[in-house]
Amino acid sequence: MKLKLFCGIISLGLLIIIVNNASYSGSAGTRTS
Q1: Pick from 15, 14, 33, 13: which is nearest to 23 by CA?
Q2: According to DSSP H, which parts of the chain are helical?
Q3: pLDDT at 15
Q4: Is 30 left (phi over 0), alpha (psi -120 to 50) or beta?
Q5: Can you give the pTM of this predicted structure?
Q6: Are the beta carbons of 32 and 26 closer than 8 angstroms?
Q7: Tens-of-pLDDT digits for all 33 residues of the chain?
Q8: Fewer CB within 10 Å of terminal CB in the chain, N or C?
């Protein structure tokens, strides 16, 4: 179904953004991989 695929893409995009923000702000202080 297209709706399920759309929701999957959005959730994946949000996850990537969160990880990028966490690694970006974390690189200055304590870094967690």
Answers
A1: 33
A2: 2-26
A3: 94
A4: beta
A5: 0.55
A6: yes
A7: 799 999 999 999 999 999 888 777 666 555 554
A8: C
